[in-house]
Design a protein that fits this description.
Elements (H helix, E strand, L loop, with lengths): L1 H29 L24 E6 L2 E3 L3 E7 L15 E4 L2 E7 L1 E2 L6 E5 L7 H8 L13 E4 L1 E5 L2 E2 L9 E4 L3 H24 L14 H24 L8 H20 L11 H6 L7 H24 L7 H18 L4
Parallel strand pairs: 2-11
Antiparallel strand pairs: 1-3, 3-7, 4-5, 4-9, 6-7, 8-11, 9-10
Helix pairs in contact: 1-3, 3-4, 4-5, 4-7, 5-8, 7-8
């Protein structure tokens, strides 16, 4: 009964920390400046005369988060703002990197204030990877979890002039408090799963005293990792559509199918008693089995790649077909050898 109590405690902590992270993210969302082109810092730009060449002269606000709006003051851009079909050609540039997904539209009759929605799209993955690479984790509140980037604007032909004397934009990528709460929620959920695995058959082949199942452990590994990554990216960026990639769903499918096939191989066999977690998942009864070790090693490698990609670009990785085929082959090999396991 004691372990059941601890399971409930850590499950409750995971829910509490996750709720705190959600509340924090919702609070930050309410702090977004809804009408940035009305900022007093841009008050005099609408009356400025046009210049011969487009020039970026100001922007507001000075600090934003992903998904927020940014208003950029540009003189002399109205003749370059649309293509033959009347669609806007204005693009946001950060540190000289063009963001094709951030298309701007004029917000004033004089066509000098341009409003951009600062969002991420797959076409800008390379640019965002470079921008996020400068993410700062210093302790001071002005820079923790933020990127300082030079703001510019332009078209497909290149960036406009006039940004050298402007201050840099503080672009918040990760809120430190929401990040810590999210990590705490994930850690508490993992501890709750580990405790449940000791006291129940959630990761075992039979009852609570039977051996641990490699297939079920792999399923739990990818379920926890992908779910945590999805929630994390959603809280950080506000994105929830298009976050899950076909490759991540394929990994879930491979692990699920491997688990079902492992059960179907010999459904009437009596489960063996557990010899310990690592012995159970790596051994076939005669010592460490190469086909089991192969699954564990490659699952761990792809898990590290998965976490590194999320940290570097805040997107789920897109594994190529060869890596997915490798995981599929490992799963089929594992099931094949189970025919000879006792």
């Amino acid at each position: 009964m004691q372990i059941q109590r601890w399971i409930r405690i850590f499950t409750g902590l995971a829910i509490l920390f996750l709720a705190g992270s959600l509340v924090r993210s919702f609070y930050l969302g309410q702090q977004i400046e809804r009408l940035p082109c009305s900022d007093p810092a841009l008050a005099g730009i609408a009356a400025m005369p046009d210049t011969a060449a487009p020039v970026v002269v100001a922007f507001a606000p000075k600090g934003i988060g992903l998904g927020s709006q940014l208003c950029v003051g540009i003189t002399g851009a109205k003749n370059l703002a649309t293509d033959r079909d009347g669609k806007s050609t204005l693009r946001l540039f950060l540190d000289g990197l063009e963001l094709k997904g951030d298309v701007g539209n004029f917000a004033d009759p004089g066509k000098r204030l341009v409003l951009f929605d600062v969002v991420r799209v797959s076409d800008d993955a390379t640019a965002w990877r470079k921008i996020i690479g400068d993410l700062g984790w210093r302790s001071d509140s002005a820079s923790a979890g933020s990127v300082l980037a030079r703001v510019g604007a332009g078209t497909d032909g290149g960036e406009f002039d006039g940004t050298a004397g402007l201050p840099k934009l503080a672009l918040m990528i990760v809120d430190p408090l929401a990040f810590v709460l999210g990590i705490a929620a994930f850690a508490a959920a993992v501890v709750a799963l580990c405790l449940a695995a000791r006291a129940s058959a959630i990761l075992r082949d039979g009852n609570a005293a039977s051996s641990f199942s490699l297939a079920r452990v792999q399923m739990a590994f990818w379920l926890y990792l992908i779910t945590a990554a999805f929630v994390y990216i959603w809280l950080v960026t506000g994105d929830y559509n298009g976050v899950l990639t076909p490759q991540t769903l394929t990994l879930l499918g491979i692990s699920g199918i491997t688990g079902m096939m492992a059960i179907a191989v010999n459904p009437t066999a009596a489960p063996e008693a557990s010899q310990g977690f690592w012995t159970d998942i790596l051994s076939d009864g005669g010592g460490v089995a190469l086909h089991r070790l192969q699954i564990v090693v490659w699952t761990a490698i792809l898990g590290v790649v998965f976490l590194a990609e999320i940290y570097n670009s805040f997107r789920l990785p897109t594994f190529d077909s060869n890596l997915l085929i490798l995981m599929g082959i490992s799963g089929v090999t594992y099931v094949g050898f189970k025919f000879n396991e006792k």
